[in-house]
Amino acid sequence: MELTSSRSLIVLRLSSALAALLTLIQAVLVILTAAKVAKLIGAHGGVGYLSLLATITATIAAYVWFRKGGSKGLMMHAGGIAVLMIVQIALGELKVVWVHVGLGIIIVLGAVALATLAYRKPGGAV
Fold first, then answer.
1. What's the pLDDT at 38?
2. Domain of 25?
3. What is the total count of domains within the chain?
4. Which residues of the chain have pLDDT under 70?
5. Helix-then-strand count for the chain, H and E
6. Residue 12 CA to chain centroid, in angstroms?
7. Is residue 89 part of a domain?
8. 112 neighbors 54 (Cβ within 8 angstroms)
9. For the chain, how big is the Rg over CA atoms in Å?
10. Taking a C-beta distance cutoff of 8 angstroms, is the pair 107, 23 a contact?
11. How much is the pLDDT for 22?
């Protein structure tokens, strides 16, 4: 199977796009909570766990794709976002609000960048 049509690349693309979408949904949920439109902090946390699951899936797919000759940078990016999400969940559970917010912004940007790179860079530099 060619590198650009590999199943692992397809899984990487779909799971990274899902992770980016879920992190954006989290941002909307917390903004609605902060604006006192609705109390959605529980849903925010639940979507956070789903985001982590999607990112771990993307990391595994990126690793498999890397082993077939894919991009090492994409694999490291996906793994880095997954680690940041684990730290983010811990910060949220500990109620370290402002560090949690700052890291959340970085994670949203990183997740969107991961999805963008996964679609733009098939078989990129190893």
1. 87
2. 3-120
3. 1
4. 1-5, 121-126
5. 4, 0
6. 11
7. yes
8. no
9. 15
10. yes
11. 98
Amino acid 94: pLDDT? 96
> From CA 77, how far away is CA 59, in angstroms rounded?
8
Q: How far apart are CA 38 and CA 59, in angstroms?
A: 33
Q: What is the pTM of this model?
A: 0.91
pLDDT at residue number 6:
83
Q: How far apart are the first and last CA of the chain?
A: 18
Burial 9-39 (b: 16+ CB within 10 A, else e): bebbbbbbbbbbbbbebbbebbebbeeeeee
* Contact (Cβ atoms closer than 8 angstroms) between residue 26 and residue 120: no
| Nearest Cα residue to 58 out of 27, 21, 91, 32 | 21
Answer yes or no: is 126 within a domain.
no
Is residue 125, in this structure, part of any structural domain at all? no
The reported pLDDT for the residue numbered 124 is: 47
Distance CA 115, CA 55 (A): 10
Q: What is the pLDDT of residue 97?
A: 94
Q: How far apart are CA 61 and CA 73, in angstroms?
A: 13
